[in-house]
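A protein record in our archive is deliberately plain, so that people and models can read it alike. The tokens are whole numbers drawn from a learned vocabulary of local backbone shapes. For reference, a complete record is included directly beneath this paragraph.
>
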Amino acid sequence: MFRCLFTHRLAMEADLPALHRLMERAITSFLPDFLTPAQVEASFEIMGVDSRLVADGTYFMVFDGDALAGCGGWSRRETLFGGDHTSGRNPRLLDPANEAARVRAMYTDPDHGRKGVGRLILDLCENAARAENFTRVELAATAAGVPLYEACGYAPVRAWDEITSNGVSVPLVLMGKEL
């Protein structure tokens, strides 16, 4: 079996256009297996790259050679999900002693699906959160992400439908893991 050797680095502001392109490819490629076309379109309202993660130095880019294979990050801030355009974001810093760090905005390029990109990003995020004394991580999973997160030790906490501005519901699952 062919195994890719990935490299990674923290994202910089100049990377934001490439990150947005990757996010769009991932959403339009992976979510249609789980959601209706209207839900896939509505997902763009509640998902996206959060430039605060890039500014905070907590957003990773994974490469296969020169190709961007995936991205994702973690946060020490209260916001659970969403991009720069998503309403309800909260920049409050979390208390590692009694609150969970957030894994955020994970996307894999469709050409690199099921090759270990997501697992690598989760490992990077968990290790970085652990280094800042967090003992638990949480994330908001899409239906497409739940199998990966469960395979990596995350357990469902609660499910809900996020209602977008045009009234379309997008299912999400809060998942958590002890570090």
